[in-house]
Amino acid sequence: MRLATPLLLVTVAAALGASCSSAPPGAIPPSPAASTGEPASAGPRDAREAIDAALTAEWQARSIVPAPPADDATWLRRVTLDLLGRVPSEDEVHAFLADDGPDRDARLVERLLADPAHATRLARWWEDVLLGPEVRRGDVDRGALRRWLAARFARDEGWDSIVRGLVTAAGTSSAGGRRLDRVAGPDDQRAALDEERDVDGAVNWLLRHRKSPPDLAGAASQAFLGVPIQCAQCHDHPVERWTQEDFAGFAAAFAQVQMRPVDRRAGVYLVEDAGRTNRRLLRDELGAPMARAAPRALDGTDLAPAEGSDATRRDRLADWITAPANRWTSRSFVNRLWARHLGMGLVDPVDDLGERSQPVLAPLLDDLAARFVASGWSVRALERAILLSRAYRVAAAPIERDVQAARWSRFASRPMDEDALVGSLFTVLDAERRVERMPPRAAAAFEARVRSAVSVAFDEDAEANPTRSDATIQQMLLLMNADLVDRGTTAGAPSGVLAVIDAREGGDDRRIVDALHVRVLGRPATPADHERARALIAASGSRDEALEDLFWALLNGSAFVTVL
Amino acid sequence: MSNLAREMSMSARLGRRSFLAGLATLAAAAGGGTVAAAPPGRHARACILLWMNGGPSHLDTWDPKGGEVAGPFRSIATRAPGIRISELLPRLAERADRLGIVRGMTSKEGSHERAQQLVRTGRTPSPTVAAPALGAWVARERGDAASALPPYVVLGRGGGDGGFLGREHGPLVVAAPGAPPEYLASPRALGDERLQRREALVRAMNDDLARRVGQPGLAARAVVRERAVRLARSPDAALFDLADASPAELARYGDSDVGRGCLVARRLVERGVPFVEVVQDGWDTHRDGFTRTRALTADLDPAMSALLDDLAARGLADQVVVAWMGEFGRSPRISSDDGRDHHPAAWSAVLSGGGLRGGVVHGETDGRGDRVVRDPTTVADLHATVAAAMGLDPALTRVTPAGRPIALTDGGKPIAPLVG
Fold first, then answer.
1. d(CA B172, CA B228)
2. What is the ipTM for the molecules in this complex?
3. Is the pTM above the cut of 0.90?
4. Which of A5, A10, A449 is the best mutation test for B, with the most CBs of B within 10 A?
5. Does any CB of chain B come closer than 8 Å to the CB of residue A284?
6. Which end of chain B has fewer CB atoms < 10 Å from its terminal CB, N or C?
7. Which residue of A has its CA nearest to B132?
């Protein structure tokens, strides 16, 4: 298992060293100053303009010359990978490059945001944040959590509502743990089944910590607030002001959660609030403090439900977390999404918005957080702003100094994540067609096998820093020798990709070379590419073998797996 | 204290070989980016880390107690006079004269993720330092660039990563020990010439990309790809595959994950791999702990014993440090589910070989195994001991891309009674 926190280069905050709180040592730090939830009255009309204005000012102030905008093909590939988790198809590339209608980019973004594959991609992201990639237990049904999330992302349900649903999740779980479920499943079919059986997918993130309830508090704090308080579980935080008491008080919000087996063998549990402290905690060395403490939020707010009210401690915690004035929550999400698309968060790493971390461009983070809240915590609106911003449009040019100093003036190229690699391989190798001809169970199993192979080959790190290469020997070997790649690139298969392209392009080598580049890299071949291909064909014994080699090499080159 | 002064004082404790090692690494550190020159003198050239995933109960292994915390297992005498360990490890008891049992391990991380980070990297997880795993440090400092085998291998699901040292120092993870790494061979026989044409094409494309985009990470990818290609082509890749192992050998180690892992690890270090981690999963025994611990030790005992025996028989005992540990210990208090919960305050680790003293216990816990009462040892100290045995300066520093110097251990001091 690996720590969810991405391990990273020294942040600006660490270099600066100063803490910004004035609270006396040992006291709970004051909540970040309450925000009215209103965007700045003067200045940028919308969030995208706010981003562009802030970065332009920053670049000017530091005499940074931003890279030129990326060309259309590059931008299309980038945004399709980011939103749908796959490369664009040949048709999609041609259609976009030929589109000279107004607001072309905005229209594309809108289409991709509304695509069901986008909702699934967001769901996979948060599935990994909440469950970690390594959890494969019988009592945790990853698929159910993913479907629960995807349904909400698909209708752009407010992030505050989603967090509330997770924090207060209660109900019966479904049997989980099968490897297949980690990776695939015709999700819409399973979603219907979930509803039928009255299954609550959200309880699965609680079940992950069933054996160690104190971990729940730390997980919630890190995921939703960006405050890694769990290190205060065993000792006063070495750097921040969190004490063990603070941790116990926060964890106490979860001390009344009961997870009772309904069917232990199948791994089905009932998660509910017992109305009294879970006695098992008192016997656990690390659980006892949280069982005895009075529930208290990170800023000291009392989380005990009022006398006679129906609310549970978790309801009160959810109230506190999703309050518009709670800037931890809004800033944390904004920062995570920013990092996801732009390579490095305004606060780095993404799950440590503690006192000592000083965000670069703090006013921008605060502004975006306020707009996020004002929009009804709309994830889609925030995505729109980031993806249409100038920072997301710049080219991936060389970075002279370290990534931080570049201040998003060039796009931070990064390897595709596991999800995107599977999606892209499926797209490039036309595996979708193969899958369509299979019965649903076989199709799901096939996809699961591919995902499983890729996931083994990937270094399992839930919050991998995007600017770090995820190259591992296993991943390289997979792309070199996996059956899927070998069979997908062969000229021999009559309905294989090469045969189809060959027939479509009338056997014209130059057009075939272009088509392969568009298919794999999202752009036509350059003169240098054509020259290399020509030399290869000349040196090979057979033209078919040369095209196979070219196709294979395109998949094995860094450009394929890199989001440029 | 100046670097040189620290070196001198360390040399007084460790003796001549490490003094020379210290000078060499000091020189290398001053040089900034070079691999530490292999120091003259005797030192271990490899480490096999036996990683007990989930946090092994110290009471039911190396630090047995009587009374209500004991559980169903008793203690037995060992070959080392005065040292008793759990009855679950009879073969290792026979070999206790080769073991340094550290009973005073103590740490402050009680959650799996953080504790695993701590014990693998030797540093409290911190958002500001991408700490490399110990294996990555060893890979960087002792890796042989000419070898087709990667210098840091993990057998089973586990391992750390290269941290700020770079992705290229991360491990090759073979999820199923005893089987070869997946995808070593092309499904079709393509012939050398064609394979070389393919690789040349990939290299040319990557060079093109590097010229246009030139960002960090792309260079690391190129290094890792070269490694993959070399491994795929090398006859040494067969070392991972136990299909050719004799049934007798397999029987000695046991046909379990940890058994097969130990056998492959032995083969790899014989061939020069400097760091191999063997993972035994399942030690997070909150429920049904005693049944599970019995099963785990039934596999561990023969595997680790066979490994120690073979290393000794092949004259490798001094050259290979075998280190046994997990992310924390387990509570003396037995839970209502018949298990034990996480317990970082006191736990055990074991070091063997590499010139370290055996038949020794260092550190002591109270009558219940709750707290360390004598000679507490930190993870940094444990790492420092392994490093020193390998001729690496525990204070060896490398500089992060942002310009910050980070040392191999976080102020760790080698355990004197073990290195003495």
1. 9
2. 0.83
3. no
4. A10
5. yes
6. N
7. A7
